[in-house]
């Protein structure tokens, strides 16, 4: 019964309901395949973070996107 | 001085201000009763997560609610 | 079905098994009392952190304890 | 570039190096398949938590295992 | 390549884009100065939490602000 | 009063007590400089994670180090 939490940047209008369903399923299956433990209680929590609030190498992703554009 | 963080699904319009006050008090008291440590600096952080972003057993809570309904 | 996680300093030999059992029960009950939701799947995770790795006001708890002693 | 963190109970001597390698790969691939984003910087962090420090439904996993045994 | 996450109360309209840029830079530099490790992949995630959802000493920050006012 | 948490790989015998003291101070000061808020209650928590349990791009840091060596 793991807790799997995902933090990702919120981009292009955000992850769709379908993407979040697929991701939840796949992450849970991945765990199940590796550990062969019961996952009926496995929890997946997905958090989307504004690109203003997520920085890589000291630069917000908002700025990284601008530089690249 | 613990940090207690709560992640819960956002349901039925979300937790009310009063529920969050009560929860903060009770969690802090629980810690105090067990460890008898100072809790004047104890932190409680409550995060409500969309039922689309919270999955149990690989199924989002949004879908679990639908199946049950 | 909340996830409640507790981060606390590891002191005096650490929390005992009994304290961790009591804390888990009380935190879960607190949530149940406030929200009246099912808690049979509620998760409590307790993490004890070395006082060298936990700082308050920019000072590690190890040093705070020394100054007070 | 997501951060995927896994908290799981430490059981039967703990996850092996190989299991952790496989899990890291599979979780990263799952994300990649769903979002089609670059994952060369995706981070996976696996934390194993003592069964004394992990409770479900207010009962530590250590105790749950005993009751079942 | 550390992950640095900041949880802070959302106050006075929230942190500005500029403050979040500055904070990301400074936190990353701090890490770099102390450990002298590569930080081009260092991640900073900033989360602002409603003062209703953040409690200190069992009292929500919303209430603490009121009492002081 | 922020909570700043740092997750980093445990390498070369781990961060020293002095490094953790410095990091705690610098991170707290960084926050103070940007937001000009009281930081006497700011919390810094540093977690060092085994290179077997920390993966980048789907590869554990243990393996990344080997490939480079």
TrEMBL record, chains A, B, C, D, E, F:
Keyword Zinc-finger tagged: no
Enzyme Commission code(s) on record: 5.3.2.-
Keyword Isomerase belongs to the record: yes
InterPro entries: 4-OT, 4-OT-like_dom, Tautomerase/MIF_sf
4-oxalocrotonate tautomerase-like domain mapped to chain residues: 2-62
Class of enzymatic activity (EC top level): isomerase
Alphabetical UniProt keywords: Isomerase
NCBIfam families xref list: taut
Family to which the UniProt record says this protein belongs: Belongs to the 4-oxalocrotonate tautomerase family.
Record's protein name: Tautomerase
Organism classification: Bacteria, Pseudomonadati, Campylobacterota, Epsilonproteobacteria, Campylobacterales
């Amino acid at each position: 019964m793991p807790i799997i939490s995902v933090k990702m940047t919120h981009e292009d209008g955000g992850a769709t309901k379908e993407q979040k369903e697929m991701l939840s399923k796949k992450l849970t299956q991945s765990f199940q395949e590796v550990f062969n433990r019961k996952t009926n209680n496995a929890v997946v929590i997905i958090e989307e973070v504004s690109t203003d609030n997520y920085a890589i190498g000291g630069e917000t992703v908002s700025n990284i996107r601008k530089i690249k554009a």
